[in-house]
Amino acid sequence: MERLLVLVRHGQSEWNLQNLFTGWRDPDLTEKGVEEAKAAGRRLAASGLGFDIAYTSMLGRAQRTLGLVLDELGQTGLETIKKQELNERDYGELSGLNKDDARAKWGEEQVHVWRRSYDVPPPGGESLRDTGARVWPYYMTDILPGVMNGKRTLVAAHGNSLRALMMVLDKLTPKTVIDLELATGVPVVYRLNADTTVAEKLVLKG
């Protein structure tokens, strides 16, 4: 039985391009982001992959990415579940700010700690650990059982919600997850063993 789980970070958003903290704000994809999402779908199709179910967040950039991927796969009618648990990390008071402006206000070192630490949240926002605290239970109770029963599963979400998920899959520590980078629009293909551990991981780069 195939236990397939594929993760895709949404394509470049308008605020990614403008170097703004995004979080739960809802900018659209750029033209480049649209093409990244389409390219992700083409890579999955070229690898012979198809899906039985898809999950995404409540944010438009992830939903649009998923739609573009499924269009390339010829699976536009696929059952799709949208959940807030898969939303991007909430950046609180940083949301909507230019990253350079945030550094000018709070200092480069403090902003770096908020962005790259594991458990220090920005004012009014979430740390990566906080993000994981909503992603991990949802993965364990809703996503993983389907994968283990042979449902080929696609998750289109965000840099930090997927980093939290990959922390579990790749057995990363609070220290090593800090260095995990996830490119926009690049599918990460996991095949799982019968004990839920990872049998194979493949990054479908261009």
Please explain how this structure is put together.
The chain has 206 residues and is of the alpha/beta class. The protein has a single domain (4-203), classed as Phosphoglycerate mutase-like (Rossmann fold), CATH 3.40.50. The chain is 40% helix and 14% strand. The chain has 7 helices and 6 strands. A 6-stranded mixed beta sheet has the order 3-2-4-1-5-6. Helix 2 (31-46) packs across helix 3, helix 4 (99-106) packs across helix 5 and helix 6 packs across helix 7. The mean pLDDT is 97. This is 2,3-bisphosphoglycerate-dependent phosphoglycerate mutase.
Concise synopsis of the structure shown:
By secondary structure, this protein is α/β, with parallel strands linked by helices. The chain is built from seven helices and six strands.
β-sheet strand percentage: 5-15%
Please mark out the parts with pLDDT under 50 across 5 or more consecutive residues, or reply none.
none
The CATH topology is given as: Rossmann fold
Average the pLDDT over all residues and give the rounded result: 97
Strand segment tally: 6
How are the strands of the largest sheet arranged?
3-2-4-1-5-6
> Approximately how much helix is present in the residues?
40-55%
Function: Catalyzes the interconversion of 2-phosphoglycerate and 3-phosphoglycerate.
Subunit structure: Homodimer.
Protein name: 2,3-bisphosphoglycerate-dependent phosphoglycerate mutase
Family: Belongs to the phosphoglycerate mutase family. BPG-dependent PGAM subfamily.
